[in-house]
Amino acid sequence: MNASNVSRRIGTTLALLAAAAPLAVMAHTGTDDGGHHGFLAGALHPLTGADHLAAMVGVGLWSALIARRAFPDLIWAPLGFAGMLLVGALMGLAGVAMPAVEPMIAASLLVIGLLVVTRLRMPGVAAAALVGVFAIFHGVAHGNELAGESEAAATLAGMLAATALLHGLGIGLGWAVRRMGAWAPRVAGAAVAIFGLTLLVRMA
């Protein structure tokens, strides 16, 4: 199979995954109904929420597309997102309430999608800070859901493990397509951005 066919197949997969995201269940609809219990439940939780899933994969994808070298360029944004996700989750567990959590999560999809489309390069610290701001809101949403749960720590550990997995998935996909043509990641990035914009419009 030649590089063109590989690029086409990967691009189609990315586009389908991103386009299907709005059909999935939101990760933080406000209540858990007791669904958060332990590491495994925490690990599965981001995988069932289209907004969190798209954001985490998108961060990894963007990192791979703009990296000039594998290390440390690939890890700046994922580390920034995961680190600030943890900070936000701890804030939520402590009862900290932040305004506009849902709109900011939707805005994160719009911004991350546009970053993928444009392949905008920036210093590693800046990339980590940019996605980290949005990650706080993702984390607060999770932390508010987990407040009062007896297994909150284990559940949060599972969520962080899933976050790292999704970042890794995005990095792998981005690294695979970065030299095979620009259209595939742009289609996926555009789908994520449109997803975020659609959520913002619905909240207006």
Indicate the topology:
Blueprint: H1 3-20, H2 38-44, H3 50-66, H4 76-93, H5 101-118, H6 124-146, H7 152-177, H8 183-203
Helical amount: over 70%
Termini gap: 47 Å
Q: Structural class of the secondary elements?
A: mainly alpha
The tally of strands reads: 0
Element-level helix/strand string = HHHHHHHH
Tell me, briefly, the overall form. globular
Radius of gyration: 16 Å
Q: What number is the mean pLDDT?
A: 85
Q: Ranges with pLDDT <50 over ≥5 residues?
A: 16-34
The number of helical segments is 8
Strand content: under 5%
Instruction: Give the biggest beta sheet.
Output: none
Structural commentary:
It is a single chain. This protein has 204 residues and is mostly helical. The protein is 73% helix and 0% strand. The protein is built from eight helices and no strands. The chain has helices at residues 3-20, 38-44, 50-66, 76-93, 101-118, 124-146, 152-177, 183-203. The longest helix has 26 residues, at 152-177. The chain is globular. Residues 16-34 have low confidence and may be disordered.
